[in-house]
Design goal:
Length: 111
């Protein structure tokens, strides 16, 4: 990823608050207006306790595939909802810029 790639994109979906913090600290705060938390880009987070809003990468999980499919089946629906929102239908996406101070409280290297 580079700043140029981020600037050229319409939206940036990060897999956790630490990634949002790292994005804005390394590539610029202006990107927070088009960055969203993939786990729930439709609501305003009040806290990031217990790693809320963090999406775990299944490639590092040693559980059987059938267990992972059950746990991660919500992702497909999430992508569909995000697509609708990006087309102007459905719920409003809440950008990181609206809770940037909360993201700054998270260690950017804690992912």
């Amino acid at each position: 990823m580079s700043r140029e790639a981020c600037v050229d994109s319409d939206s940036i979906f990060v897999m956790g608050p630490s990634y949002a913090h790292r994005l804005v600290s390394e590539y610029g705060e202006d990107l927070s207006t088009k960055a969203y938390l993939f786990a729930d880009p439709f609501s305003m987070p009040l806290s990031f306790d217990d790693r809320e809003y963090t999406v775990w990468d299944p490639s590092f999980d040693s559980r059987p595939t059938n267990e992972l499919l059950v746990e991660l089946s919500w992702m497909r629906e999430q992508v569909l909802q995000i697509r609708l929102a990006s087309l102007g239908h459905g719920r409003r996406l809440v950008p990181v810029s609206e809770f940037l101070d909360l993201c700054r409280a998270v260690d950017p290297r804690s992912h």
